[in-house]
Amino acid sequence: MLQSSFMDNFDPTYQHLITELKHDLKAAENIAECLNLLSAFSCKYMLPKELWNEYFGFINELLNAQEIRERAKAMILHSIYQLYYKVPIDTFYQCGPLNLPKRKLLKYRSAVISAYDIGTGVSSTAASLIKDISFPSEHLERKWRQYEKSSSSMPPIKVVKMYQKMKALYAKIEMVEENVEEWMEALMEVGDSEFVEHNIEYRVGSDLCNKKLWKLYIQYLKEQQQEGDCKLLHTYSKYCRFFMDDAEMKEEYQKAAEKYAHQIEVPWTNPFEFEVFFEAALKHYFSKTDDTSASDNEEEANHKVTVYFNTNNLIKQQNFTFKSPLIHYIIQNANARVLQNLFKCCKWFFAKNPIPICYSLATKQRPMGKSEINFYQQSVEVVKHSLVKTGLENLYLSTVLQIITPRDRMLLSDFIPKMFKCDAKYISITNQDLTFEELYFILGHGNVLDLHLSEVGIIDGNGKAVPVEDVLKLCLKAQFISIGGIPDTPNTAKILSEMEFKNKIESFNLKIDDLEPNAFVEFLKKNMAPKSKIFIHYKFNNNAHIISNFRQIVSNAINSHWTAGEKPTFKVI
Predict the structure, then answer these.
(1) Which of 260, 271, 466, 515 could disulfide-pair with 275, CB 3.0 to 4.6 Å?
(2) Predicted pLDDT at 40
(3) Radius of gyration, alpha carbons of the chain
């Protein structure tokens, strides 16, 4: 419920109306009556986010599933129209799939598939994810990782540059957040009017009393006004349903309405004399202001093969300004993108050094009606037992490696001799046996960001098991780590405490026999990111006292080292 100190910022007329509403809610005999009161108010005036929270909270207390759906569907578009961008997850699922307006927000609550905020669900394809990285957000890097992992070929340079630009702009926007004029200027640098509008509205919706931001936004919309655009008039309309004593602004709104439209259709049941209440006004408004028709086929079009060549007419001798040994040095040491560009510019390079570039290599279950080996763009998906039958030799794996098999523990070991180089950043290996030399071939480039190893046996040159700390030494850029089935030692925690990762770790999942808690705490303080996730799984040979002691020491350290909003999530079992 609204606090009295916050209500002091309301205009007198609106404050009086809210006071009456609070009194009526307190006197209401049941939830249904509370919902009716809030619904009726929101159809006439702007409703602060605190009261929208109450509305959806009341809905979830109802017992009748049909009533929940009806009440939620009736008011969701109203809430978004009134700049409330949060839809409770229970309501979302009770309503079933909702075609909600998408929002390009700088910040939003993150979930696996986020229903908490409008239009922030995880995209299912690489092409859709391009849209998610086309604007700055606090989840930009996570979206970029999703894009890289779900792509089938190397990201186009223009997409890479777009990501880098948006990452830089996000940092700039964050830096000037306290100065609203500079903040708006930084938003406009993105060059996306939807992004600007959505984020200003999100900020206004978080603090309806911010009259300065309201007026700056209205001025921005005036400068952007185009024929047929209704955003400006509806923003005026919302302003006047909150700042009800601002007669000057209402007059300004009326003049704008006369200039741009004879009468404006609004969802308010108490229209002004120059407005018209229209029951379908919300659907009409969102259909005009939200473009959801953009095609997802851009990336697919960028990767269509238009030129084919073979070696039949290859010029056997090429004259380069570089000496031959230098050319071969470049080929042997070039990264995947440079090598790919060399192959594109002259087929002599591939003829002399046939190094197929593979973006993603993944094993799979046998699909119904499909071949055992599938090539798509620069990626290979293969049924497990057919990995060594792909016919690929001298393979350069650039980005994704996923080897999961419950049976053949030597599958990857047998395939490594067929590989020229591995630079994979996203690695998932399950149920495999490797030598440390083979593991080094996979991880030794040092650029792994996402590492998942489950039940992977690793032995050194003397036949001894390689401990988890020696694996992690190869992955000091990793941000997502999940390791189980690789042994720890009495010195594991101490060695971890001495490591300094180059990036802050977002997720750390470890299955261990034992871990000295105080040394492990030092590792966490040094390397874990704010709001990260830590999960420690003790093996079955430990007693409850050891686990409880570990949990208590680590929990206390986390509570004292990080502020409330920055604390990592910690779980130990």
Answers:
(1) 271
(2) 96
(3) 29
The runs of H, that is alpha helices, within 419-516 are 436-443, 468-472, 492-497
Element of type H or E holding 54: helix 49-59
Bridge partners of 465, per DSSP, are 459
Token pair of 284 as six digits:
């009409």
Structure-token pair, residue 84: 């409330």
Contact 106, 138 (CB under 8 A): yes
Give kind and range of the element (H or E) at residue 333.
helix 324-333
* The two structure tokens encoding residue 376: 């798509």
What DSSP assignment string belongs to 251-297?
HHHHHHHHHH-SSEEES-SS--TTEEE-TTHHHHHHHHH------S-
Close Cβ partners of 363 (under 8 Å, ≥ 6 residues apart): 381, 382, 383, 384, 387, 402, 403, 404, 405, 411
Give the span between the Cα atoms of 398 and 379, in whole angstroms.
10
Span 276-305, pLDDT tens digits: 999 888 888 887 766 444 443 444 444 444
CA distances to 63, 75, 77 from 52, in Å: 20, 10, 12
pLDDT tens-place string over residues 302-333: 444 434 344 454 444 555 555 556 656 666 66
Name residue 549's amino acid: N
Tens of pLDDT, residues 497-506? 999 999 999 9
Angle at 541 between CA 540 and CA 547, to 5 degrees: 80
* CATH architecture of the domain with range 384-572: Alpha-Beta Horseshoe (3.80)
Q: What is the DSSP letter of 193?
A: H
pTM > 0.90: yes or no: no
Contact 64, 71 (CB under 8 A): no
The encoded tokens of residue 57 equal: 């909270």
Residue 369, exposed/middle/buried by CB under 10 A (0-12, 13-18, 19+)?
A: exposed
- Paired tokens of 542: 């430990």
Q: Are 386 and 366 in contact (CB under 8 A)?
A: no
Average pLDDT, the chain: 84
Concatenate the DSSP letters of all residues of 484-507 into one string: ESS---TTHHHHHHT---SS-EEE
Domain boundaries, the chain: 1-100, 384-572
Q: What is the Cα–Cα distance from 353 to 339, expressed in whole angstroms?
A: 10
Beta carbons of 156 and 130 less than 8 angstroms apart: no
* 249-261 residue pLDDT tens: 999 999 999 988 7
β-bridge partners, 528: 505
Where is 174: in which H helix or E strand? helix 157-175
- pLDDT, position 319: 53
If we measure between CA atoms, which residue out of 468, 463, 507 comes closest to residue 490?
468
